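Try this one yourself first.
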């Protein structure tokens, strides 16, 4: 799933978010003072359960604890809003509170689930997608990332967002639903 109209990359695009960006459902997203354009991104998240390196199609699933919901908040001006990706992904996505996760980790999961993903801002439906439309499968993403870095128990991999990403402001309530997992709700302050 992608945010921009551009040709699909040959490999998954990834970046790191610090642990200080993680909050749970019901906690507030702090709008950065330097922010000009913050977007929500509803995503399925994969939670790693075991020390993992060089996983493949045969063993990746046994290294995953389960799935949860993520909001991959992004400050687009810092990211390179013009679509050329000349900005800095890590800086744009690493603000404190910019990675809400939850409400639970679903440990009974399918390898290639077809889960509806919906995001509401102030009860208005903004994103409506399904994991079957992802550019890369969950297995491909986990294999690719683990070929580059060792994953530790508790590490989280976000899998991409459906169309409909939109700007959020202080005072907005963001609610993300993924069927069979639950609802992640956060207020922007």
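Now uncover the answer:
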């Amino acid at each position: 799933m992608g945010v921009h109209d551009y040709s699909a990359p040959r490999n998954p695009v990834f970046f790191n978010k610090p642990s200080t960006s993680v909050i749970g459902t019901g906690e507030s997203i702090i709008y950065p003072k330097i922010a000009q354009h913050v977007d929500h991104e509803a995503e399925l998240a994969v939670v790693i359960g075991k020390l993992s390196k060089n996983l493949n199609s045969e063993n990746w699933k046994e290294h995953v604890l389960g799935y949860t919901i993520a909001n991959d908040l992004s400050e687009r001006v810092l990211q390179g809003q013009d679509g050329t990706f000349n900005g800095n992904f890590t800086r744009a996505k690493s603000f404190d509170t910019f990675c809400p996760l939850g409400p639970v980790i679903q440990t009974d999961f399918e390898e290639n689930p077809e889960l509806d993903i919906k995001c509401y801002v102030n009860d208005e439906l903004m994103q409506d997608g399904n994991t079957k439309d992802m550019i890369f499968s969950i297995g491909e993403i986990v294999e690719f990332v683990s070929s580059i870095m060792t994953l530790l128990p508790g590490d989280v991999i976000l899998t991409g967002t459906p169309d409909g990403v939109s700007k959020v402001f202080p005072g907005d309530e963001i609610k993300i639903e993924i069927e069979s997992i639950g609802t992640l709700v956060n207020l922007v302050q």
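Discussion: The chain has a mean pLDDT of 92. The CA atoms of residues 127 and 164 lie 5 Å apart.
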